[in-house]
């Protein structure tokens, strides 16, 4: 009688982690950065239809990297969670912390109980009335959740991007300054080189604390180019 093949639980978890990390690293990076009037999200995404950055509720947004169909399922689940909680209780009871906890439970269950983990990394952000009230939560493929401050870099070539932002980011700066910093950081290569990313290849949005109730707004077209300092072509 042959002996059954045995793999230790530690090795199984390690293999799952390696698999998920490799999948996430293949995607293009997304940055979440605080600025004076709110929170900015920016990432390289040439698609106009498949969004990595989305609104969840009044003052809450979601950004993700990794496998699109998996993080899209999570986004939809988050919208349903927020809508149901806001309807059953009060709109003020929908918080980024509650949403992050729900995502953490879902991702943790998938990681431990399914054969394949989700290849995703998420940020759940909520803009407050003051900068000190802003909240950023980063969630990884295994359900780990961490509260972040100032900025978050996810996916792709994250280390040089993170180092570049860490040295230069001012969370009280104006939106155009922080956006230009984010785009320059995204262009940094692992070997110290940089490249040019056009406005057409960017996906950008903000949670703007100065907006009345729904703080989320996409940055597109002429406004995005103006914030990037791109000169309009002369007539």
What does this structure look like?
There is one protein chain. This protein has 235 residues and is an alpha+beta fold. It has 6 helices and 10 strands. Helix 4 runs antiparallel to helix 5. The longest helix is centred in the first third of the chain and has 21 residues. The protein is globular.
Task: Write out key terms for the chains shown.
single chain, 235 residues, alpha+beta, five-stranded antiparallel sheet, 6 helices, globular
| Uncertain stretches of 5 or more adjacent residues | none
* Continuous helix count: 6
Radius of gyration: 19 Å
> Helix and strand succession?
HEEEEHHEEEEHHEEH
Indicate the overall shape.
Answer: globular
Overall strand count:
10
Mean pLDDT: 91
Describe the structure in brief.
This protein is of the alpha+beta class and 235 residues long. It has helices at 9-25, 68-88, 96-113, 158-168, 175-186, 221-228; strands at residues 30-35, 38-44, 53-57, 60-66, 120-126, 135-139, 145-148, 151-154, 202-208, 216-219. It contains 6 helices and 10 strands, in the order H-E-E-E-E-H-H-E-E-E-E-H-H-E-E-H.
Q: Layout of helices and strands, plus pairs?
A:
Blueprint: H1 9-25, E1 30-35, E2 38-44, E3 53-57, E4 60-66, H2 68-88, H3 96-113, E5 120-126, E6 135-139, E7 145-148, E8 151-154, H4 158-168, H5 175-186, E9 202-208, E10 216-219, H6 221-228
Antiparallel strand pairs: 1-2, 1-8, 2-9, 3-4, 4-5, 5-6, 6-7, 9-10
Helix pairs in contact: 4-5
